[in-house]
Write a structure and sequence with these properties.
The protein has 298 residues and is α/β, with parallel strands linked by helices. It has 14 helices and nine strands. Strands 4-3-2-5-6-9-7 form a seven-stranded mixed sheet. A two-stranded antiparallel sheet has the order 1-8. α9 packs across α14. The chain is elongated, with a radius of gyration of 22 Å.
């Protein structure tokens, strides 16, 4: 049960948000991921997780009307906020100007298309992400070096991020992130903490990049690992041999028979091919990748 203080904080932020949106005639579109946080207790927790100091330049994707942005600016050296929606961008720009805040830079662009050099200015990322871009924006973040990221995702997506080998939610996403970042679950956020209310819970996740990627020797090695993950995880409850054959087009094959022959003629592949993908660790998938690499056509 929430305390009176939590309810007061939630109502205060909710009223502030509604007043701003009504003033500008904005109707939020859930289909565009426009679910705004109205729970100040959760807002404070998210910001506290980031441990922001005056040494930090924070990247925020999808700042909306500044629910996190303006609060974070009180503790940070600088905030770089990327907002795609032109109307929302203007509202946030107006708020920053009215409140005479001088350490927030707002960029009116699609974060997926922004030059990576902008990201590289930042050492921390804090965002209530637009959920429809969760996967591509996460992998874009991991293209540059940062200290930590505190990110909000759909709970189902977060569950796949943190899943371990053999678990129900273990997936291609789990395997792809395994070598790139340490992932820690921090908190769940209920639908009632947003307007409009989504139908699902959200989760707050901490990402800490793995600085030295000793597993991927080069970009080609990483691309091949990605192909194998892409081939086996749509059929993760099948044996890997059958999963690879079913996804043969990803490896550059049209004919089942030729791929079967190549797989079955290599005795070193046998221990891997007999396993189910859901039971195969990222380390084992990487070992399989290195063994199967000579027959990958694409």
């Amino acid at each position: 049960m929430k305390s009176n203080e939590e309810n007061i904080n939630k109502n205060s932020l909710a009223n502030e948000t509604k007043i701003i949106l009504q003033k500008h005639g904005i109707r939020l579109n859930k289909n565009l991921g426009q679910n705004y946080l109205i729970d100040d207790f959760k807002r404070k927790k998210i910001i506290n997780f980031a441990e922001i100091s005056k040494r930090d330049t924070i990247l925020e994707v999808g700042p909306g009307i500044g629910t996190l942005t303006i609060e974070m600016s009180k503790s940070a050296k600088k905030i770089i906020a990327i907002e795609q929606d032109n109307k929302i961008f203007k509202i946030l720009s107006e708020r920053v100007k009215d409140e005479e805040i001088d350490n927030i830079e707002i960029i009116n662009e699609d974060a997926l298309n922004v030059d990576i050099s902008i990201f590289s200015e930042c050492n921390k990322i804090v965002s209530n992400l637009p959920y429809q871009i969760s996967s591509p924006i996460t992998f874009k973040f991991l293209e540059f070096d940062f200290d930590l990221a505190i990110l909000m995702y759909q709970k189902e997506f977060a569950n796949r991020m943190i899943a371990k080998t053999g678990e129900k939610n273990y997936s291609r996403l789990s395997a792809m992130l395994h070598f790139k970042t340490d992932i820690k679950f921090l908190d769940n956020v209920s639908p009632q903490s947003f307007i409009p209310q989504p139908k699902i819970y959200s989760s707050v996740i901490k990402l800490t990049p793995i600085k030295n990627e000793k597993y991927f020797l080069n970009m080609e090695n990483e691309r091949d690992y990605s192909k194998i993950c892409k081939a086996i995880f749509p059929h993760k409850n099948k044996k890997i041999r059958n999963a690879l054959i079913d996804s043969r087009n990803i490896l550059g094959y049209n004919d089942k028979k030729s791929l079967k022959c190549l797989l079955d003629s290599n005795s070193s592949l046998e221990p891997f091919l007999a396993k189910r993908a859901v039971k195969t660790s990222p380390e084992e998938i990487l070992e399989l990748t290195n063994l199967i690499k000579p027959i990958i056509k694409l």
